[in-house]
């Protein structure tokens, strides 16, 4: 069966699947394998300096001639760091000790130079430029368009999708509340933006004229069939790809995903200061239980504060102190290669659609 439409044809896809950009968790091998399987592979570049972007995307180009997507967070205003860091440092101190690290230091806003990141993405040879967390500055959208790149923005509400369409994107990702990782909300309070994929997709399809890509909680062909039925032109899947052989996450993270219950994920600010969905673990619970003022710092300070802990936990295989981003479809996660997963999901999509057709 063929699942082609204007979006898949424009992107040269033989299957309506986008392997979600997952900064720090995807890999050049996964992006290339997704492309070779007929899907769109995506490289999350937000946690990379420009030269790392150049290196990663050159690895993708060496491994495949297929088009691919590069992704960046839209720039966010950086708030002032709270002046009293006592409670925040106290929260992570015991974990530093348990992991054999020196006591935590005051976090800096840090980050990479946005302009040079953008330049590296524009030079990457990717066919698609996607972004999340807001609207990219108009000059960035114009520069990507000048390169002939297809532009995709992420929205968690109908209003955000309309704003992205007005900004000139070619397609919108509808990020449902089931999604793993950070919430992409940028207009209004994130709690009011927690709309499930099944409600979000058709309302977004009705509100914008560009193609809508369904994302959140889709982890097998049944979910893909549902999303296509709701009017989505494609799906963007994150969590289901995390347990794939090519994923760039620690083995202990992969092991935790397999068989995890969807009731064991929730939205937390514990690791980065921004709301994100992940599997509940010791650090998440301790951070959320702490009720002293400024225990959780705003993004990007909380992210910088917990980075040494997360890095050491990854090296030492300690899942209890890692950010285990995962969506509510986590229980469907399988150990496979990227190619096997895409093939399996397409066979399941066909079977699911056949079950409901007369
Ligand atoms: C580990 C992880 C990292 C993510 N990083 C990014 C990112 O860098 N950029 C982005 O646009 N979306 C990112 N997302 C969100 C995905 O694009 C997508 O919306 C989400 O994975 C869909 O939900 P699912 O995980 O249930 O499939 C990330 C998701 C996960 C699970």
Automatic annotation (TrEMBL):
Name of the protein this chain belongs to: Nitronate monooxygenase
Cofactor list: FMN
Family: Belongs to the nitronate monooxygenase family. NMO class I subfamily.
GO-annotated molecular function: aspartic-type endopeptidase activity; nitronate monooxygenase activity; nucleotide binding
PANTHER family in UniProt: NITRONATE MONOOXYGENASE-RELATED
Keywords in alphabetical order: Detoxification, Flavoprotein, FMN, Monooxygenase, Nucleotide-binding, Oxidoreductase
GO BP annotations listed: proteolysis; response to toxic substance
Annotated Pfam families: NMO
InterPro entries from the UniProt entry: Aldolase_TIM, Aspartic_peptidase_AS, NMO
Organism: Hyphomonas pacifica
Reactions that this protein is recorded to catalyse: 3 propionate 3-nitronate + 3 O2 + H2O = 3 3-oxopropanoate + 2 nitrate + nitrite + H2O2 + 3 H(+)
């Amino acid at each position: 069966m063929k699942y082609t439409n204007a979006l898949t044809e424009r992107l040269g896809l033989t299957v309506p699947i986008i392997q979600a950009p997952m900064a720090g968790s995807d890999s050049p091998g996964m992006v290339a394998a997704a492309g070779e399987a007929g899907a769109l592979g995506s490289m999350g570049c937000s946690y990379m300096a420009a030269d790392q972007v150049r290196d990663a995307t050159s690895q993708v180009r060496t491994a495949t001639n297929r088009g691919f997507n590069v992704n960046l967070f839209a720039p966010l205003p950086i708030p002032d760091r709270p002046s009293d860091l006592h409670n925040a440092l106290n929260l992570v101190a015991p974990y530093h000790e348990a992991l054999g690290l020196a006591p935590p230091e005051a976090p800096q806003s840090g980050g990479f130079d946005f302009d040079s990141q953008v330049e590296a993405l524009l030079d990457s040879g990717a066919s698609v430029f996607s972004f999340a967390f807001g609207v990219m500055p108009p000059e960035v959208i114009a520069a990507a368009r000048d390169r002939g790149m297809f532009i995709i923005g992420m929205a968690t509400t109908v209003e955000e999708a309309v704003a992205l369409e007005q900004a000139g994107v070619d397609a919108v990702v509808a990020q449902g509340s089931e999604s793993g990782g950070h919430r992409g909300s940028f207009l209004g309070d994130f709690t009011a933006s927690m709309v499930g994929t099944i409600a979000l997709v058709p309302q977004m399809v009705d509100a914008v004229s560009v193609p809508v890509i369904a994302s959140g909680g889709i982890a097998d062909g049944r979910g893909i069939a549902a999303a296509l039925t709701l009017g989505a032109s494609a799906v963007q899947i994150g969590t289901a790809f995390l347990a794939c052989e090519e994923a760039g996450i620690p083995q202990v993270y992969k092991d935790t995903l397999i068989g995890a219950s969807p009731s064991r994920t929730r939205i937390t600010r514990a690791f980065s200061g921004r709301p994100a969905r992940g599997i509940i673990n010791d650090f998440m619970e301790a951070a959320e239980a702490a009720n002293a003022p400024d225990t959780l710092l705003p993004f990007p300070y909380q992210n910088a504060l917990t980075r040494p802990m997360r890095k050491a936990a990854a090296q030492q295989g300690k899942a209890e102190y890692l950010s285990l981003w995962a969506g509510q479809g986590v229980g469907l996660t399988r150990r496979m290669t990227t190619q096997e997963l895409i093939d399996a999901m397409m066979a399941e999509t066909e079977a699911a659609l056949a079950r409901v057709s007369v």
